[in-house]
Amino acid sequence: MSEEVKENIPETEQAEVKKDTEKKDSKPKKSKANAELEKLKAEVDSQKELLMRTAAEFDNFKKRTEREKIKTAEYSKANILKQLLPVIDNAERALAVDSNSPDYAKGVELIVKQLMGLVDTFGMIELAEVGDTFDPEIHEAVMHIEDPEKGENEIVMVLQQGYKLGDTVIRPAMVQVAN
What we know:
- A hairpin with a 2-residue loop joins strand 4 (163-165) and strand 5 (168-171).
- With 179 residues, this protein is of the alpha+beta class.
- The protein contains 3 helices and 6 strands; from the N terminus they run H-H-H-E-E-E-E-E-E.
- It is elongated.
- Helix 2 packs antiparallel against helix 3 (102-121).
């Protein structure tokens, strides 16, 4: 305002005009700040909701994966047991036969062959044969002999066969080792 106009207006009115001007100037600033604050609050709420949904989805995924893992294990066990049933049936038939009968030994031998054939289908392999070199990773030496005719650390007797499935040793072979 110019100086002339200010002189004609009483001081109280000048103060009111000044306040109104300040209010007008500050009002847009406050509403602009409030709008920005509301926008940020909405964005934070949106991010919180997204986080909660993602966490719930991940939890459901973990539960679903665990259920699937259990089902897969059960299915595998059931499949193995289903394939073992004929072997069990033949073993029960062998028990019903007189053990002094010549057919008894033949029957037991056939059962063992049937069982070993089943084991082979799963990919399980035997770990020890006479003449192999002793390997502490897959063999367990339970006896030791000195024999000049045998080589260093040569397996001379397999006391209990060991088995391996893939890279996993299921049971180490118990062997007698020379020299």
